[in-house]
Structures are given as structure tokens and as C-alpha cells.
Write a structure and sequence with these properties.
Layout: H1 9-20, E1 26-30, E2 33-37, H2 39-55, E3 63-67, H3 72-83, E4 87-91, H4 97-107, E5 111-115, H5 117-126, E6 135-139, E7 141-143, E8 149-151, E9 163-164, H6 165-169, H7 174-185, E10 192-198, E11 206-211, H8 212-221, E12 233-236, H9 243-253, E13 258-261, H10 268-275, E14 279-282, H11 284-300, H12 303-323, H13 331-350, E15 358-361, H14 368-376, E16 381-386, E17 393-396, E18 409-410, E19 415-418, E20 424-427, E21 434-435, H15 439-445
Parallel strand pairs: 1-13, 3-4, 3-5, 5-6, 6-9, 12-13, 12-14, 14-15, 15-16
Antiparallel strand pairs: 1-2, 7-8, 10-11, 11-21, 16-17, 17-18, 19-20
Length: 446
């Protein structure tokens, strides 16, 4: 497919709002527990913020920074900016002031959107070094029990005369939504959607330029076989400033899946129990810690409980050929597995909410023995491979094609070849447009 055949992100968002009318499109934690924002209310906020940005002079091609943890406001800002044909420049929510300054200055961002008091303070510290930043729009944050935070309508006043997010969206209504739809219809697939700065190991960070077709194609092509629907609930855990979670979340939103935001990664264990998601993406460290916690808890047991757990772990190992690879095992192993499932594995699954049907793993290799363990206890983990420059997914396992211990096959419309020197060569609609203001580096990789 050509770039023109992929629908721009704001139009996909509008299609999802209209098709699914999800009453729990966005879910977030507050003092009173988890609260929901409907798809219609999300659109109203997107349209209100887009109007405010347009009123501040943001036009087609202008850059706007987002400096916030995972929260409903992140996606509101994302779609508001893109709906104007402007370019999103995300910054990791715990980034240093030096790196924050570099990204906003190098990208030429005119406005910065923040959520969180820490983020607002950091922007304030950097303002004197960011002459191109004309305005800051701040969503204030209030603390809640459990160590997390929540963007709140009742927060402290924004710092240094910045505009308050809650104020700029307050009066938005049908007129603003109609205007947003009109503007979004003018955005084309080949327009630049975002500049994502890679961390890199040496030298300055490079801004990866991705257009709407890059992200639209990737969010669609890698997730088609997972058959997600509005009955699913997704946990948004990994930083949205990074392309992995961002593209996966697009896949959720465009299919009407409820997205529950984990603003502080330290609270993920609690969120799993409270939200009970059916799907989430993570990096291998999450699976390593989850496994370690299971083993540690087992070591604290004694007597009969310890004996039952030890036997269940041995049975899980014997069941790997069957549960992970679809091979035959003796009927006695299947019988013991069913007993262990009732006594132990079901409790392991309950510890991550009890409803997971899709665990995604990426960012680094997952140890094969870990993948085998999760599959053997009824928690399927699908691995993939990619990088920021490919939006990011190049290969991915799916329920129809998975093979434990691999990163799957190339996703639809992507071609892959291994060069003689071992380099992985990728061609497809997901491949970036280049590095921002770095033509030599761009020529070196494209």
C-alpha cells in the first residue's frame, strides 16, 4: 500500500469515536478510585484544546511539545495537535532539564503542553533557555493515595502565567467539534505527524520524523490478528513519549478499546489488580520482575503450600512442550497441569488481574525460559522487534503465527531481508522520513 492509502491519525480517531461511542474510552485513577471519560467527552476536550492552540497561532507544520506522564491529557493533546496538521514532539516525563531543553530547542517547538507539577516546574526552569517557546499549557496534578498522581480539574494555579488546560477546554462544544472535524479532514497521510528523539548511546539525540502513514500503517498492520474490540481493556504503562506504547495505544483507541493509564510505573501491580486489563505491552524487565515475585512469594511459604507450589512449578516445566509449542505430552502431565492450574496457576493469573489474553513484549529480547513459563501458566506473551525509525514494529508474533522464543514474522506490507554482513534491512510504509535537521545521518541509514 502507498502512503496515501493509509488514513491520517486524526481521522482514525474520529472514526473510532463515531463507531464505538465508548463510554469508558479513557480510564484514570483518582482519590475516589478509577474514573472514566467517554469517547464523546474525549473528543470535546480534543476539539477545545485544538481551538486554543489555533488561537495561539499554531498552524500546519508547527511543532508542539508534550511533556507529561501517561494520562488522558496525553492523548487529548496528541490528537488536538495533529488535528491542526501540526507536529507532536514528545518528551519522556522524567527527562532531565538539559535533555528537555535540547529536544524543545532543536525541534523548534512553539508551545509546550505539560501535565504534572514536576513537569510544570521543569518547564518553568527551562523557559529562559527556550526563547522559541511562546506559551505553555499546563494540566495540573493532584496527589492521590497509593503514590500515583492524577491530572485534576481542581489543581493549584499553573506556574509563571502559563495557560491552564482545564480553562482552555471548559467552554468547548459542538461548534469546536465541527471545526475540529473540518480541520482534521484536511490533514494528509504524508504530512509529518511527530518528531521522536531517540536516546542514543553516543552523540546528540536524533529526531526521528514519522508521518501519519508511518504511524497509521504500523498501528493497523501489526495488530489486525489480535482482534481487539470495545470489550477489551488495555493498560497503558510504558512511556507514551516512546513510540512502542504510543503506536500500540493507537491500535487500542482506533478499535474502541478502553485505555487505562498508569501515570507512575511504580503502581502497575496495583493497577493490574484494580483495572483487570485484558491486554498490555511491557518490556522484558516487567516479566522478569513478575516471575521473581512469584518465586519469592513461593519461598515464603512452608509445609503443604510450599509442596503444592513446588510441584506446580515442576509440572509447568513438563507442560512447556504442550502449552508453549503445541506438542504432545503424556496424559498424566495434562492431568497434573489441570490440578496445578486450579491450585496455583489461576492464582498467578489473578495476580495480574485474571483477564489477560494478550501480553506484548518488546524493546529487548525476552529470555526463552521466561516466555515458556508464562505460556505454561496460561499467560501468552507475544514478542516483537522494531525500532523508533520503523514506527516501531517490524516483526511480531500473533495468535495465528506465534512461535515461542522468536519475535515473529514481518507484519503485513513490510519486507525484511538480512544483509550479508548481518544487518537487518527493512522496507515498508512504517519506515521513517529521516532525522530532523540531520541529512547526513539520514543518508547513512536510508
Amino acid at each position: 500500500m502507498t502512503a496515501a492509502e493509509y488514513i491520517p491519525l486524526p481521522r482514525l480517531f474520529l472514526d473510532a469515536v463515531d463507531r464505538f461511542t465508548n463510554p469508558r474510552a479513557q480510564v484514570y485513577r483518582t482519590d475516589a478510585g478509577w474514573q472514566a471519560i467517554s469517547a464523546g467527552e474525549m473528543l470535546r476536550r480534543v476539539a477545545g484544546l485544538a481551538k486554543a492552540l489555533a488561537g495561539l497561532g499554531i498552524q500546519n507544520g508547527d511543532r508542539v511539545g508534550i511533556f507529561a506522564p501517561n494520562c488522558p491529557e496525553w492523548h487529548v493533546a496528541d490528537f488536538a495537535i495533529q488535528g491542526l496538521g501540526a507536529v507532536v514532539v514528545p518528551v519522556y516525563f522524567r527527562e532531565s532539564t538539559e535533555r528537555l531543553t535540547y529536544v524543545l530547542k532543536d525541534s523548534g517547538a512553539r508551545i509546550a503542553f505539560t501535565a504534572g507539577e514536576e513537569q510544570s516546574h521543569k518547564i518553568a526552569e527551562c523557559r529562559q533557555n527556550l526563547p522559541a517557546i511562546e506559551h505553555v499549557i499546563s494540566a495540573t496534578v493532584a496527589a492521590h493515595p497509593g503514590g500515583g498522581t492524577r491530572s485534576a480539574a481542581q489543581g493549584s494555579a499553573p506556574l509563571n502565567g502559563t495557560l491552564r488546560y482545564q480553562d482552555v477546554i471548559a467552554a468547548a462544544g459542538e461548534a469546536e467539534i465541527t471545526e475540529y472535524r473540518r480541520r482534521a479532514a484536511e490533514v494528509t497521510s504524508d504530512q509529518l505527524a511527530t518528531i521522536i528523539y531517540t536516546s542514543g548511546t553516543t552523540g546528540e539525540p536524533k529526531g526521528v520524523m514519522l508521518n501519519h502513514a508511518n504511524l497509521s500503517s504500523n498501528s493497523r498492520d501489526f495488530s489486525e490478528e489480535f482482534e481487539m474490540s470495545p470489550s477489551d481493556v488495555a493498560l497503558s504503562l510504558l512511556p507514551l513519549a516512546h513510540v512502542y506504547e504510543r503506536t500500540i495505544d493507537y491500535g487500542y483507541i482506533f478499535r474502541g478499546v478502553s485505555v487505562a493509564y498508569v501515570e507512575q510505573p511504580e503502581t502497575v501491580a496495583q493497577a493490574l489488580l484494580e483495572v483487570r486489563p485484558t491486554t498490555m505491552a511491557a518490556v522484558p524487565r516487567f516479566y522478569e520482575k513478575t516471575y521473581a515475585n512469584i518465586i519469592e512469594k513461593g519461598h515464603r511459604e512452608s509445609g503443604l503450600k510450599r509442596k503444592i507450589l513446588d510441584d506446580a512449578m515442576r509440572t509447568a516445566g513438563k507442560a512447556v512442550p504442550w502449552r508453549a509449542y503445541g506438542k504432545s505430552v503424556p496424559w498424566t502431565v495434562k492431568l497434573r497441569w489441570r490440578i496445578a492450574d486450579r491450585l496455583v496457576y489461576s492464582k498467578i493469573r489473578a495476580g495480574v488481574g485474571g483477564r489477560i489474553r494478550i501480553f506484548s513484549s518488546g524493546g529487548a529480547p525476552l529470555a526463552p525460559e521466561l516466555a515458556e513459563f508464562f505460556w505454561s501458566v496460561g499467560l501468552p506473551v507475544y514478542q516483537g522487534y522494531g525500532l523508533t525509525e520503523t514506527s516501531p514494529v517490524v516483526t511480531f508474533s500473533s495468535p495465528k503465527t506465534y512461535r515461542v522464543g522468536t519475535v515473529g514474522r514481518p507484519i503485513p506490507n513490510v519486507q525484511l531481508r538480512i544483509a550479508d554482513d548481518g544487518e537487518i534491512l527493512v522496507k515498508g510504509p512504517c519506515v521513517m522520513q529521516g532525522y530532523y535537521h540531520k541529512p547526513e545521518e539520514t543518508r547513512a541509514v536510508l
